[in-house]
Design a protein that fits this description.
With 129 residues, the protein is an alpha/beta fold. It is built from 1 helix and 15 strands. The strands form 3 sheets. It has a 6-stranded mixed beta sheet with strand order 3-6-9-12-14-15, with no helix packed on it. The chain has a 5-stranded parallel beta sheet with strand order 1-4-7-10-13. It is globular and about 50 Å long.
């Protein structure tokens, strides 16, 4: 039975290009805007009403006590090809711009962009969700 479930999950990953392990915690109204290239760590926590685009990775990073996976708040928008990694917190209403690398906490209701991502303004995700 377990083997059948694992094979089914892998088949879905291959067809959709999206890897979301059953142990990941996803809030209600989680939305994936476009097909493919999405990887979510098995221990990731994502709040309600979040929207992610294609190519997004939400994963593990760091060493020692800094090693871990992100906790993403409610109403967060993550742009295409962004990477959110490590033992960090993404605040409610945050916007992560396309192609950004986020390895530090993001305050609520702010927009970050770049590699590494830095705060660029206090606009929230209201227009993106």
């Amino acid at each position: 039975m377990l083997l059948g479930c694992v094979l089914s999950q892998k088949w879905i990953e291959i067809i959709t290009g999206i890897s979301i392990p059953y142990t990941a915690t996803l809030g209600s109204h989680f939305y994936i805007g476009h097909f493919g290239g999405i990887i979510i760590n098995a221990n990731a926590v994502i709040g309600d009403n979040c929207n992610i685009s294609q190519g997004v990775t939400i994963g593990v990073s760091g060493v020692g006590y800094k090693r871990g996976v992100p906790v993403i708040g409610h109403d967060v928008y993550i742009g295409a090809n962004a990477v959110v990694a490590g033992n960090i917190s993404i605040g409610d209403g945050a916007v992560i711009g396309a192609n950004s690398l986020v390895t530090r906490d993001v305050m609520s209701h702010t927009t970050v962009l770049g590699v590494p991502a830095v705060k660029i303004n206090d606009k929230d995700s209201k227009g993106y969700i």
